[in-house]
Specification:
The complex is a heterodimer. Chain A is an alpha+beta fold. Chain A is built from 13 helices and ten strands.
Chain lengths: ~400, ~260
């Protein structure tokens, strides 16, 4: 029998029981759709969580602070010692200060960070507007978006504007007697951060204010494989190190378990769909004993009878996959529009929490077709064993 | 003329032990073996182009004999040779292909692929042989025209009356142009007018050289066949060629 004819007969047979066809198809589609939905959500969340780490040079650097800030100080001498370590590529510093911005007759309290210009790329700071400071540049300000809005300004009208500010140095970092000094600097950039109000100024400002040591250092290695040795050597100097790779490892472990749980849910859906498909094909076989007997009496080859059932299950798999993709896209659009409206109400930008890699689609498609075929295999094999004389027995 | 079907010392017994009441002796449960012999030492030759009519009371083994000829049952002993091929030496798939090339069948009831219309059901044996849809349906139209069912080509078989369905069955039997037509009580569910119409088409096929093996209860059809066989209790009790029953067979059937 020609394949197109066989396909026509199979399709007509499937459509002859419309309700059963629709429910079986829906079960497969929901299983496929929910599997892709859950895994896309898992990959999406993982991507959001790790994107910042992978985007910056975070995996090439360690964050260094002092275990006893009063005794072991992170000062220029310590930086020189760290720079002398073979694995070190560069060292950037940041000093946490307090301060006030003076705008017209208003004063705004804000955390201040005095950083070296090499600190910004290592910290993975993104600018919404403007630019980062040039090497050795002084008298500049980088404001967070939240600070700009707290000042009642917008990014456009505050950029390149000169502002006055005061700095307060914590006792642990040095002197405290410079709080009355008023600095003047130009706003050269707006940092993309709507949640926290903070200001970055030149590292030279902290020294001017009397800070003798830094709060934190970012030490970059030449190679990711050098990180272990570098940490050990830095810690031997009495310093504390933090490496985001540790967090990433924890996160990978967490998302590994997360995927397992999602996989478990998906497996339940797939098992239900598989059972539904198997049940439909078995009932179909029982209803068509006489038809199979007739085909055998008329001299049908075994492979035609086998493919009548196997093809039916493959069609269920294929259509279930296609409809499952549609269901996934619909549910994704609904969830994203919900998050988008929630984000705009909270004044945040919307983010895509789904990530659907091509291999996920390929894997789900392959598994759907394989399971579809397996669901039809047993009924198809049973159909081959039907005795042609059953045509007379099933009167 | 050469025999197209040869049946030699054919016997068939069914094992009914599964239906028997188990015998319990102490802790031992046994199922008594009970074979029912439905055909006993049948010898028969059917010539090519011959019209053979088999009749006899219900349960005498007529349908079992047809099923054995079609290769749907396996003999307990003896052999069936069709076109010089021993059916007993064929596997089930081989028998299936052999059947499609050599036999057409009509049963007392009509059987269909419900998802296909009349035309497609008639074309089905040709589809199974691998013919294209176009040429299979062209021949199906011709077969339907012969059986007078052309106007119902696009109907569903289940929408037709029993008589009409049997004529469609006959169209399906003749479409494949197989040399042997096996008909098991084809008029059993029909009124006499519909039955005679169907018998007329079988006559026409016979005139065109087809070998016909017909099982019937209706003795008025004896006139259609070249050779008649009376069966009783799994055995052939008489063979004759005339149009009326010989006295000895008539007597035996009456006693039955």
């Amino acid at each position: 029998m020609k394949f197109t004819l066989l396909l026509q007969i199979v399709l007509r047979n499937m459509l002859s029981r419309k309700l059963r066809f629709v429910f079986t198809l829906l079960a497969s589609a929901i299983a496929v759709g929910s599997t892709i939905f859950l895994f896309s959500l898992g990959y999406g969340l993982e991507e959001i969580s790790t994107e910042q780490l992978v985007k910056s040079d975070a995996l090439l650097q360690i964050e260094v602070s002092s275990t006893k800030p009063t005794e072991i100080k992170l000062n220029d001498e310590m930086i020189s010692q760290i720079k002398s370590i073979a694995e070190v590529s560069s060292v950037a510093s940041s000093t946490s200060l307090a301060g006030k911005i003076i705008i017209d007759d208003k004063l705004l309290d804000s955390p201040f960070y005095a950083a070296s210009e090499s600190y910004y790329p290592l910290a993975g700071i993104d600018l919404k507007k403007g630019r980062f400071p040039a090497p050795e540049e002084k008298n500049y300000l980088l404001l967070s978006e939240r600070t700009v809005s707290a000042l009642g300004a917008t990014g456009d009208n505050i950029l390149n504007k000169k502002l006055n500010y005061k700095l307060i140095v914590p006792a642990v970092l040095g002197q405290q007697d410079s709080s009355d000094y008023i600095y003047e600097a130009t706003v050269i950039g707006i940092i993309a951060n709507q949640k926290s109000a903070f200001v970055y100024v030149s590292g030279a400002d902290a020294k001017l204010a009397g800070a003798e040591s830094y709060s934190v250092l970012k030490v970059k290695a030449d190679n990711k494989n050098d990180i272990i040795a570098l940490r050990k050597k830095v810690e031997n100097l009495g310093l504390k190190t933090i490496y985001v790779g540790d967090t990433l490892q924890e996160m990978n472990r967490f998302f590994g378990y997360f995927r397992l749980i999602l996989g478990g849910f998906a497996l339940i859906g797939v098992a239900i769909a598989l059972f539904g498909m198997f049940n439909t094909l078995t009932v179909s076989l029982m209803e068509r004993i006489k038809e199979i007997s007739l085909l055998k009496i008329l001299g049908s080859k075994e492979k035609i009878i086998f493919w009548m059932f196997a093809l039916e299950s493959l069609i269920f798999g294929l259509l279930g996959f296609a409809l499952g993709i549609v269901l996934f896209l619909l549910s994704k659009a609904i969830v994203l529009s919900f998050f988008s409206s929630l984000a705009s109400r909270l004044g945040n930008t919307s983010i895509n929490i789904f990530n659907t890699p091509a291999f996920l689609i390929v894997v789900v498609f392959s598994i759907t077709m394989l399971l579809g075929f397996l669901a039809g295999l047993l009924p198809a094999r049973r159909a081959l064993k039907v005795n042609p004389l059953d045509i007379q027995r099933f009167e | 003329m050469n025999p197209i079907i040869q049946i030699k010392n054919l016997s068939k017994a069914f094992d009914l032990s599964k239906r028997n009441v188990p015998i319990v002796k102490g802790t031992v449960v046994t199922l008594p073996k009970r074979d029912i012999e439905v055909l006993k030492d049948i010898n028969l030759e059917i010539l090519s182009g011959e019209y053979l009519l088999i009749f006899g009371p219900s349960g005498c083994g007529k349908t079992t004999l047809l099923n054995l000829i079609l290769g749907l049952e396996t003999p307990t002993s003896g052999k069936i040779i069709v076109h010089d091929k021993n059916l007993g030496k064929m596997t089930s798939p081989e028998k299936s292909i052999f059947r499609s090339k050599n036999f057409s069948t009509i049963f007392q009831n009509s059987y269909w692929l419900k998802s296909l219309n009349v035309l497609e059901n008639v074309a089905l044996p040709l589809y199974l042989r691998g013919l294209s849809k176009r040429s299979a349906q062209m021949r199906a139209h011709e077969a339907l025209a012969i059986s007078g069912m052309h106007e119902f080509a696009l109907s569903r078989p289940n929408e037709l009356s029993s008589g009409e369905q049997q004529r469609v069955s006959l169209a399906r039997a003749i479409v494949s142009d197989a040399p042997i037509i096996i008909a098991d009580e084809p008029t059993g569910n029909l009124d006499s007018r519909a039955g005679h119409k169907l018998m007329a088409i079988l006559d026409q096929e016979h005139r065109q050289g087809k070998t016909i093996v017909l099982v019937t209860h209706n003795l008025s059809y004896l006139v259609h066949a070249d050779k008649k066989i009376a069966m009783e209790d799994g055995q052939i009790i008489g063979r004759f060629t005339g149009d009326s029953l010989p006295a000895d067979i008539k007597k035996e059937l009456e006693e039955e």
